[in-house]
Known about the structure:
mainly alpha; 2 domains; 18 helices
Amino acid sequence: MMLFSGLKFLFCFFPAFLAAYYCTPKKYRNLTLLLGSLLFYLLTEPVFAALLLFMVFLNYGIARQISRLPRERRARRFWLFLGVLVNAGLLAAFKALVSLSDSLWLPLGLSFYLFKMLSFLADIYRGEISQMPSFLNSATYFTMFPQITSGPVMRYREGAFSPSGRACSPEMAEEGTRLFVLGLALKILLADRLLLLWQDIHTIGYESISTPLSWLGAGAYSMRLYFDFWGYSLMSSGICVMLGLPFIRNFQHPYASRSIREFWRRWHMTLGSFFRDYVYIPLGGSRKGTWRTMGNLFFVWILTGFWHGEGIHFILWGLGIFCFLLLEKFLIRNRLESHPFLARFYVLLVISVTWVIFAIPDREELFLYLGRMFPFMGGNGGISVNPRDFVKFLRLYGHYLALGVLACIPAVSAFYERHKKHPLTTAALAVIFWLCVYCVIHMGSNPFAYLKF
């Protein structure tokens, strides 16, 4: 599989593609990007490459039909409905197939390229894309390899998909490289290392861990998931910047949030805005009264749970977030706003628990782990084989946890932004890149957490 953090991508595919892209005359660069993206997908997911091509042609054809019809014609609504039905139906069918077999039957990046296609159709229908793009520009947008496996879910109007409006420069190449190396470091040096702590706890068995270790594991998993996906997003956006496309922000320090609502505005921002603009608002958003608002939120979070997987724990995860959003909206918003320190503590507590629900598919194991986290709630959660087991794991992983906490602090990112062009920063990034390569060679790299969605 062609992973951004893999040696084949780092030293074979991407350097060769980038050289070809920069050597291509400006007006033909979309063709180079399209062919490179199709090759990338073919090398990574050869079984379902034909499906990707079919959906590209189908969605472009539906978009053309919508664009040709007057805005008042009902036929436009029919073609949009058909597009939504086909794309959403295909995604639901594959999700159902996976629930009956295994994830091998889920095409790589299916959710992300279908979401792009759905947003494209909706924006053509609404007139937010004023002129129907060419097939080449549209196909490039649908398939571009920096985003096809795990997003971000860029809108067509956010990118300069006409080659005449896209300019590459040494400054953009330099900035894109910095973003890519930062993302690689978050993935290899933090996310993959923190995953080892979570795996060690699973190997020990949840019935044998202490309450402090259960919280340590929840914190490690929370940071692992964040750095894995944030790292991927930075690598993806870094590649886009190198190609002359805009930087798409997908995370904005979510663990510094002061409410669950704010957290989900800062986490996986492009997916959140997709559900907001194409599901929540069309359903009526918060404009139809309290009960309708609650129903719309419920539907969005149940849908989000189903999107993440077929297990009941994903539904429980979505329901849990929905409940806290209602709690904040109707009961505790003012208290959170007046006590920022307690609000941040509350967010870290709640999000850690919801990530545990997200992570553990087996119900018995899930309730056992939650019993370890909250022994006062009954059961045998307070009994442990070694009540000081967390000390051993702090010694083994404490430096990774400390680095993770630092990377979550907005002031640290602000300091980097102020000094990113300093020669010492550039030298440090070069050292970090080769350290990542060393780790990949000797310890390997895990697939990205959102690889099969």
